[in-house]
Amino acid sequence: MPVCFSSAPLRWRWALGFLGWCLLWVASAAAQSGSTLQGRVVLERDDRPVSEAVVTIIELRRSAMTDENGNYRFENVPPGNYRVFAHLDRIPDVVQPVTVQGPTTLDFTLKLRAETEQVTVTATLREETTRDAIQAVTTVNSFDLAERAPVSLGDALEREVGVAKRSFGPGTGRPVIRGFDGDRVLVTQDGLTTGSIGFQSGDHAEIVDLQGVERLEVVKGPATLLYGSTAVGGVVNAVTGNEESHPGLQGYVTAFGGTGNALGGGSGGVKYGRGPWMVFANGGGQRAGDYRTPLGVIENSFARSGNASGGGGYYGQRGFFNVAYTYAGQNYGVPPLPDDDDDERVRERALRPKGGEPGELVRLNPRRHGVRFLTGARNLDTFFTDVQVQLQYNRYRHDEIKVETNEVETAFRNDTFAYRILADHRPLGRFQGTWGASGLYRDYSTRGEELLTPATTQTNFAFFGLEKVTFERAALQFGGRIERNAYAPTGGNRARSFTGFSGGVGLRVGLWENGALTANYTHSYRAPALEELYNFGPHPGTLLFEIGDANLSRELTNGIEVSVRHQSRRVRASAGFYYYDIRSFVFPVLTGEFEDGLPVGVFTQGDARFLGTEAQLDINLHPNLWFYSQLDYTNAELKTGLPLPRIPPLRARVALEGTFKGLRLMPELLMANRQDRVFTLEEPTAGYTVVNLVGSYTVTTSHTAHVFSVTGFNLGDRLYRNHLSFIKAFAPEIGRGVRFAYTMRFF
């Protein structure tokens, strides 16, 4: 009997162990009983096979590489509906839906122009298509950037729906999203701050290598859950593509020139991968002289830029790391205030800024050194399947220099160290999500004549999470962020700290085939900016004598946006509405007094609201003919009824694009309505219509693509003014001109 009792548990353990092994074997066999997904990737026009393209199943986060014949293959794909995209460095992605029930074939044709939905990573930190994104996302690819040859980030994006350009001359253009500007719009590169101070002043530029990036992504509406309180209006992310590994040699060369501003420049880069290792290098520069308008040449409006970057990394099956160094520099002039009211440009419209004394010639030379380190692990058999750590150090300097004497009037220093830790957890039923933490240390100081702000250190820390629940015809996204910002100024100024919560929920519901309704609600918190708290003195970059208030409280925004979208091969359409209610909105109230020739503006707070609409309709009228149209409008004011400053007017764009083999021709009309809803001392601007014409010719071979383009802009030589320009009174926009560009991609 004792032997029997002792052996029974042993037999049970063996039986349970055998049963467990059988269950594991059955589960393994079931997991391996999926189907194959295979196909071929070719280049447009001649159907030439594309080797070393990356094909990715978005829902499964699985990728495969094409061979020398352009073929790819996935094994053991579970039955289901998926979205799959093909990617080649600096070529627009192609996204296609597929249903896998058995062996399935899915072919791709890569085109140098984006005609369908694109893949974005900015909105959720995961790869997803712009159609499936719950927030409104816009992308601009490298071919469009080469064709536009923009002098500034604002130039690159001002034609996109919902995005306008604030400027103080050509070199300073910065994106304004749905009327939000300054510290409410965040500019990043590969998801982390660039360390520039373009947000704090109209005459400060954003330093981004526009010819070296793979694409620009714009998330419209609050992006505070993932990027923090400075993204309460949206985020612009420059994606370099240098954090991905591709085998073989790939690269690009771009050259451009133009009239109207004596434009010239070029850029080039290479990327080489061998096994799990990859190295890259990029560099380029451009120059633009003083630009011509129908009223004459705008003095001191030149712009120069130069950049270089390089690095490399290791990309194994489980672990990876990447190190990159970036240098970017600019040198640009700020058009001076006219000497007197007899100036012909001022007499034309009588729009001289009230107050301000005639300015001397000044140039700025911002430059940034950046070092980035990325490491992580993936495909882990733990709760968190993918973990990533990002570190970014930026050393930013810029001087404001008198042109006549070459003396430095004011020197700015802004050093930042930013980090972010991301962790994707394994799917829990229908739930997928990302959790993380981020932080920033900023050391800011100035010396010289324009000592508006005391030397200050700023720290930021946040913890956030974003979850997505996917159903057959709907997806629900929700998340939250807890963030702390602290300022420690010198000179006896009051230190401040702010802690707040941002949260949001979004819904996407399929209404019909290729059509969906999206709705978002966001509660966002923003700490006052350093400049709003501590500035005191004349600020020519905003044409104000600014007085900060160290007692300001945090802003709180409650926003909703609703849109309907349709995206198919023949029709792309969207229409949406947004409304943001902002408590304790920070703005400069004008006292009616003047100091140093400038109106006195005291930063104060009041309740405000932003509402607007965006619509877009693209129709494929014929296999070789597309019709494009878009419209956007923002109405923003304090709840007292006073309109807020520099809000874009009603705008529209209409274009036709015809193609024949490698030839492309696109005439377009850019239109803006009169803006007469203006802030105190702000002048109205008239409406306008501008005619542009773009032509290009594309030649492709097995491993290269050549694009020759010619752009005629403002062909009617129309005199028009950008309402968001600080100097629109005497500096209208550029007159008639032509740009030439050549771009070559090899892969």
Write up this protein.
- The protein has 747 residues and is mainly beta.
- The longest helix has 30 residues, at 2-31.
- It is globular, with a radius of gyration of 27 Å.
- It is built from 6 helices and 45 strands.
Tell me what portion of residues adopts beta-strand conformation.
over 45%
How many individual helices?
A: 6
Helix/strand structural class? mainly beta
How is the main sheet built? 25 strands, mixed
Kindly report the average pLDDT value. 88
Number of strands: 45
| N- to C-terminal distance | 77 Å
Q: Tell me, briefly, the overall form.
A: globular
| Helix coverage percent | under 10%
* Poorly predicted sequence stretches spanning 5 or more consecutive residues: 1-32, 342-357
Radius of gyration: 27 Å
Which SSEs are present, and which pair or pack?
Layout: H1 2-31, E1 35-43, E2 48-49, E3 54-57, E4 62-65, E5 71-77, E6 80-88, E7 91-100, E8 104-105, E9 108-110, E10 119-120, E11 128-129, E12 136-141, H2 142-148, H3 153-157, E13 163-166, E14 174-177, E15 185-189, E16 192-193, E17 215-220, H4 224-227, E18 234-239, E19 248-258, E20 263-274, E21 277-288, E22 292-293, E23 296-297, E24 303-315, E25 319-334, H5 344-349, E26 362-364, E27 367-377, E28 384-402, E29 408-428, E30 431-448, E31 456-470, E32 474-489, E33 496-512, E34 515-526, H6 530-534, E35 536-539, E36 544-547, E37 555-567, E38 571-595, E39 598-622, E40 625-638, E41 651-660, E42 663-672, E43 688-700, E44 704-713, E45 737-746
Parallel strand pairs: 1-8, 1-9, 15-18, 36-39
Antiparallel strand pairs: 1-2, 1-5, 3-4, 3-6, 6-7, 10-11, 12-17, 13-14, 15-16, 17-18, 19-20, 19-45, 20-21, 21-24, 22-23, 24-25, 25-26, 25-27, 26-28, 27-28, 28-29, 29-30, 30-31, 31-32, 32-33, 33-34, 34-37, 35-36, 37-38, 38-39, 39-40, 40-41, 41-42, 42-43, 43-44, 44-45
